[in-house]
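Anyone up for a design puzzle?
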């Protein structure tokens, strides 16, 4: 395994940890406050985190080309950001 693949695995692991933490915090805030926008916010971060997991696993365990993994991650990222944007508009 070359240095770039190791670096990608490390960064994906950090994204999973931080994304999971943000998702959990948003979910707890939703449960405490009962504000639906916080639930949608958490869902947006969960989608982004899931994208990192899916693309990383596809590349590491299923020999999916790196370019395809980047595309999959980018799609999840775009959808997650759209959901987060929607959650911010829900409050208005």
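Challenge accepted. My sequence:
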């Amino acid at each position: 395994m070359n240095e770039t693949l190791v670096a990608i695995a490390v960064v994906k692991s950090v994204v999973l940890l931080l994304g999971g933490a943000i998702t959990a915090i948003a979910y707890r805030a939703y449960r405490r406050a009962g504000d639906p926008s916080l639930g949608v916010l958490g869902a947006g971060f969960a989608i982004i985190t899931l994208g990192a997991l899916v693309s990383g696993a596809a590349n590491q365990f299923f020999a999916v080309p790196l370019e395809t993994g980047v595309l999959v991650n980018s799609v999840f990222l775009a959808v997650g950001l759209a959901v987060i944007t929607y959650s911010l508009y829900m409050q208005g």
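A detail worth pointing out: The mean pLDDT is 92.
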